[in-house]
Amino acid sequence: MPQRILIADDEETFRESTVEILAEAGYACSAARDAAEAESLLENGYDLLLADVRMPGNAHLEFLENVSRRHPELPVLVITGFPTVGTAIESFRLSIVDYLIKPVGVDDLKRAVERGLRRRTLARAVKEAMTETAKVAGIFDQLGQSMREFGRGEPQVEWSAHEYIAQAMRHIAQLSTVVGQTLEASRGSNPHAPTDLCALMPCPRLDRYEAAIQDAVEVMERTRSSFKSKEIGALRQRLETLLREGRRQR
């Protein structure tokens, strides 16, 4: 599906020519003549907003304020024929991706659009990665709790560890795909971008995730003489490897 761009500008010539240029570049474009029409169209979902500063409904950047509040992940390019230091500073306070001054060259416009869309792709990938990371952390929290019970002499939970790991591996496979998308999106805008996912997004549960794995490893080590299982031993080695690799990346 082509990426969707909304062009909001009260200047008809610029609005229509921009729609034509970006449509020829392969984007699905819609146009709005003022802030009210743009706000209505934004409810349909877009990948990028290109907005004029001086158009009806945005005299004091109130339209951009609303967009920042209601669509925080939507990248916005601001275009104006009347640049001022005040509007530039205020625009960047609202996390505007770029501030372009009319007349805008076709190549400059396309590059700015590409930057904005890469930011959108990266934001989506990071959000998906955070969701999958939270799922994996939750599974290992459960595993750590079960292994603590197992260590207190309740062998009936031994087999549950395998199910926890199976669940975790499924989410890790999904996370691997999402991480690949995240890094690809990041390198699209910066070929020297870091390859550590935690450098791209906050990892609020990373410490709990590592502690749960460490707990499981210690319980397995303490109880290995009581429950001599090759599968449990292999699982312990995999978790130890995961811990070592995670620590090397910090």
TrEMBL record:
Gene3D superfamilies cross-referenced by the UniProt entry: 3.40.50.2300
An annotated GO cellular component: protein-DNA complex
Keywords, sorted A to Z: DNA-binding, Phosphoprotein, Transcription, Transcription regulation, Two-component regulatory system
Transmembrane segments: none
GO-annotated molecular function: phosphorelay response regulator activity; transcription cis-regulatory region binding
InterPro entries reported in the protein's UniProt record: CheY-like_superfamily, Sig_transdc_resp-reg_receiver, WalR-like
Biological processes per GO annotation: regulation of DNA-templated transcription
Protein name: Response regulatory domain-containing protein
Source organism of this protein record: Nitrospira defluvii
Lineage, highest ranks first: Bacteria, Pseudomonadati, Nitrospirota, Nitrospiria, Nitrospirales
